[in-house]
Amino acid sequence: MQLLNHCDLDRLYLKTLGAGHKRIAITACDEKSGVSTMAMALAQRHLLAGASVLYVELNSFAPAMTALCDIGLDLENLESPESEATTAASHKSIKATPQTHHLFTPMLVTSSIGDDVVTGVLAPQEQNHILALRNPTTLAKQLDQLGKGFDAIVIDCAPLCSATVENHANQGVPADLVATVADATVVMIQAGVTKAPHLKRSMQLLQQQDITPTAMVMNNQHNPSLGQELIRQAKRLERCLPKLSGWIQHKINNSLLMLPL
């Protein structure tokens, strides 16, 4: 994954998982903002640091992960990295919420847009499971149980402010609710796409839960830099003036315009 080698990913990692936070919720203002891509990259970055990580997908509106195979973990008997014994109280909490047993099926998952593989759980699709997870107490207990076998959890959340979420509110777990049981929250913004009212509304939803984003990531997919835009324009000359087009592109590539801000 190209993002895995990006210096900005390291900066985000050092503010979240690298800073000791164990549950990271990643959401966005709008749909298709790169949440799943960022969540996968952050999870893989933690793996490269020698830690174990679980990818939890809670975006039931637009699932991005595909199951490869069940790895057969017995979550009721998982040992915490910090403790070798599972308490009777935790056993009782699991038995009291059998309706969310599907979250206790970690498996190897992969993104539909890449070849990266991590251990994860798929987004809930059954209505009774979703409604159960909309209870913050239940959600926290399930994440507690999942977290016993891993050093960290990266949660792929639904967007905070989108027509799909607002029109089908009961069909998914709200990102602002997930943020209340996370140690850190990352918000993705699409430069050139996200509108100011959407950003304002997203921040209001988080503020209502007393959540301050740990980081806000600008996705420049639809907002090329000046240098990239000049190269795109220069390529339009390739058909009639190929040498001139190549010379212009070479000059731009070796100029300060191509340096990251």
Automatic annotation (TrEMBL):
InterPro entries: Bact_polysacc_biosynth/exp, P-loop_NTPase. One of its GO terms (cellular component) is plasma membrane. Coiled coil: none annotated. It comes from the Bacteria. GO terms for molecular function: protein tyrosine kinase activity. PANTHER family: FERRIC ENTEROBACTIN TRANSPORT PROTEIN FEPE (PTHR32309:SF13), TYROSINE-PROTEIN KINASE (PTHR32309). This is Uncharacterized protein. It comes from Marinagarivorans cellulosilyticus.
